[in-house]
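Design job #97: recover the sequence.
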């Protein structure tokens, strides 16, 4: 079972961007409320009940409109309570005013499915590993994954997760050993793509230095290239892919068409299930033809 803190969050200006970024993996339901709003007091318990039922299939993001008026204004909130459902960075539905529980379920289910269909044990375990990564508890995550792999050596998603955590912990040689031992071709290819990105970045400046270089010289293609790779590895896929496309437009000879090679590897890294891959494959095709 997911911890409530992981799917019911209070949102303000400091964490709104991080929460919206989470919508790339998990739908986010923004709940705009205020302490003086009587319908909000009725709606709040309904939303928390649903969040607990769905057990992490969506994130309930609660925003006090009085405390964070800039967010409400930016997202076009015109009355309270207001619900806005964000999926993969896009607003897909919204409701304003008091709502019955059935209407909220109707809004959620096309995007998260019905409540009660719980994630399997593997999904729950990987979520725990991800939370440990986010807290920097790399040793605990590594030990948990190694123990799980002793019992289930063919859970290839565990191998990939172990590679990710070893990379986080800057144990690159250990990550390479894990990759070498993977017997599933698809899984091994995904892991090898990550390692190829690391090879590109091993001599690169850190992200802050690269940003400073770009501020000094926006036409610095090396800095653009490294910044694109840093963005993609950090999970900010679309800005990174945009930078690689821009390098291709400016100079196809750069690193022997290295921007195109990085784009193709990025598609493998991100995965065909991510809508960004289809979107940028079309952009790449248009650029090439």
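Job complete. Output follows.
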């Amino acid at each position: 079972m997911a911890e409530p803190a992981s799917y019911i969050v209070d949102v303000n200006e400091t964490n709104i961007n991080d929460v919206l970024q989470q919508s790339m993996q998990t739908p986010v339901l923004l709940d705009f409320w205020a302490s003086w709003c009587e319908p909000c007091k009725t709606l709040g318990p309904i939303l928390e009940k649903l969040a607990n039922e769905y057990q992490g299939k969506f994130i309930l993001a609660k925003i006090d409109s009085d405390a964070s008026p800039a967010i409400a204004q930016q997202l076009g909130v015109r009355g309270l309570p207001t619900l806005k459902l964000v999926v993969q960075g896009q607003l897909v539905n919204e409701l304003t005013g008091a709502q019955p529980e059935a209407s909220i379920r109707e809004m959620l289910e096309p995007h998260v499915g019905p409540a009660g269909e719980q994630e399997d044990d593997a999904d729950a375990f990987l979520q725990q590993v991800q939370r440990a990564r986010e807290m920097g508890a790399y040793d605990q995550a590594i030990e948990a994954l190694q123990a799980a792999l002793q019992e289930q050596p063919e859970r290839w998603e565990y191998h990939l997760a172990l590679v990710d955590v070893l990379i986080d912990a800057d144990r690159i040689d250990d990550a390479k050993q894990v990759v070498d031992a993977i017997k599933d071709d698809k899984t091994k290819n995904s892991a090898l793509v990550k390692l190829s990105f690391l090879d590109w970045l091993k001599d690169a400046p850190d992200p802050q230095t690269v940003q400073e270089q770009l501020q000094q010289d926006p036409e610095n293609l090396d800095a653009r290239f490294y910044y694109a790779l840093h963005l993609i590895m950090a999970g900010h896929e679309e800005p990174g892919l945009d930078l690689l496309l821009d390098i291709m437009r400016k100079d196809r000879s750069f690193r022997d068409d290295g921007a195109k090679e990085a784009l193709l590897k990025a598609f493998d890294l991100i995965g065909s299930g991510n809508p960004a891959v289809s979107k940028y494959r079309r952009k790449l095709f248009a650029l090439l033809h």
